[in-house]
TrEMBL record:
Organism: Sporosarcina globispora (Bacillus globisporus)
GO cellular component, one term: plasma membrane
Protein name in the entry: Iron-enterobactin transporter ATP-binding protein
GO BP term (any one): iron ion transport
Single annotated GO MF: ATP hydrolysis activity
Domain ABC transporter: 4-240
Assigned keywords, A-Z: ATP-binding, Cell membrane, Ion transport, Iron, Iron transport, Membrane, Nucleotide-binding, Transport
Localisation per UniProt entry: Cell membrane
Its membrane topology: Peripheral membrane protein
Keyword Plastid tagged: no
Keyword Nucleotide-binding among record annotations: yes
Length: 281
C-alpha cells in the first residue's frame, strides 16, 4: 500500500535543479532509507515532501491529495520531520521541548490539555526519556538529545516520520540505540519511517526499502537486496564494493571498497584502484 508518493518532482534553488523529474513511492508502514553521495538531493527531497521548501514543478501526493493545497495543521497531524540539525533548544527542559509536538492540536491560546500531557508522557516513555523530563535539553548527551527530538516528533501523533541523518555526530552505540528505537516504532506501532542515512550497512540492516539517489535522480529503488549491490554502489558512489552477508542478520553488507578512478566513473578504467583506508596514511 502506498499513501505517499511524488510525481515528476523538480526542486531547485535559483536556476539550478537539485532534484530532477523524480517520481518515488514511499511504502506504508515500512522503513524507507534514502542513500547517495553528498549534494545529491537527499535532504532537499525530504524538505520538499514535508513542505519545508517548495518545489518548482511536479506533485507530492498524500492520501490522494496534493500536499501543496493541504492545511498546515492538518498536514502536521499526518507527517513529522526531524531535520539534520534541529533548532536550538537552549533554555528548554525536555518536557517543554516535547510539548512543541502538540502544536497541531492546540486551539485558542495554545494551552495544553489533559490529552496533550498524556501524549507527552507517552512519547517520553516510549523513547526512554521520561527520567529527563525536567532536565535542560542542553545538559543531555548527543544520543539522549536525539531521542528527545524523536519524542517531540512522536508527540505529533503522525503516521509518518521523516528523519534527516538521525545518527549524525553520534558514536556507534548511540547510533544503534536511535536506529533500534525507530525500528521498534515501525514494528510495534506501524509508523512509516523515512530517513536519510550515510552508512550503507545501517541502511541495509534497518530498511525495508531503499532509494539510491545521484545528481537528483533515482539510480535504483527497491529492497535492500536490490539496492545494496556492487553494480548500484558503483553507479551511485563511484566505488568498487565487496558485498558480503551480515552474519547476524544475513542481509547484504559492504565489507570493503576501493575508489574507482578515471574519466568515466560508471566503468572501471586502466587506472589502478586504491584502498580508501590505505590512502588515509
Amino acid at each position: 500500500m502506498v499513501r505517499l508518493y511524488t510525481d515528476g518532482l523538480n526542486i531547485g534553488y535559483s536556476e539550478r535543479l537539485i532534484v530532477k523529474d523524480l517520481s518515488v513511492q514511499i511504502p506504508d508502514k515500512k522503513i524507507t532509507t534514502i542513500i547517495g553521495p553528498n549534494g545529491c538531493g537527499k535532504s532537499t527531497l525530504l524538505k520538499a515532501i514535508t513542505r519545508i521548501i517548495s518545489h518548482q514543478s511536479g506533485t507530492v501526493i498524500l492520501d490522494g491529495e496534493n500536499i501543496s493545497k493541504e492545511n498546515t495543521k492538518l498536514l502536521a497531524k499526518k507527517m513529522a520531520i526531524l531535520p539534520q540539525t534541529p533548532e536550538s533548544a537552549s533554555g528548554l527542559t525536555v518536557g517543554e521541548l516535547v510539548s512543541y509536538g502538540r502544536f497541531p492540536y492546540q486551539k485558542g491560546f495554545g494551552r495544553l490539555t489533559k490529552k496533550d500531557y498524556e501524549v507527552i508522557d507517552w512519547a517520553l516513555d516510549v523513547t526512554g526519556t521520561k527520567d529527563f523530563k525536567y532536565r535542560p535539553v542542553d545538559a543531555l548527551s548527543g544520543g539522549q538529545r536525539q531521542r528527545v527530538w524523536i519524542a517531540m516528533a512522536l508527540a505529533q501523533e503522525t503516521d509518518i516520520i521523516f528523519l534527516d541523518e538521525p545518527t549524525t555526530y553520534l558514536d556507534m552505540a548511540h547510533q544503534l540505540e536511535v536506529l533500534e528505537l525507530l525500528q521498534k516504532l515501525n514494528q510495534e506501532q506501524e509508523r512509516t519511517i523515512v530517513m536519510v542515512l550515510h552508512d550503507l550497512n545501517q541502511a541495509a540492516r534497518f530498511a525495508d526499502h531503499i532509494v539510491a539517489l545521484k545528481d537528483g535522480e533515482i539510480v535504483k529503488s527497491g529492497s535492500y537486496e536490490e539496492v545494496i549491490t556492487q553494480d548500484v554502489l558503483r553507479k551511485v558512489f563511484n566505488i568498487d564494493a565487496v558485498i558480503g552477508r551480515d552474519p547476524r542478520t544475513n542481509k547484504p553488507m559492504c565489507i570493503t571498497y576501493n575508489l574507482l578512478k578515471g574519466v568515466n566513473q560508471h566503468e572501471e578504467t586502466i587506472d589502478p584502484v586504491y584502498d580508501l583506508a590505505a590512502s588515509a596514511y
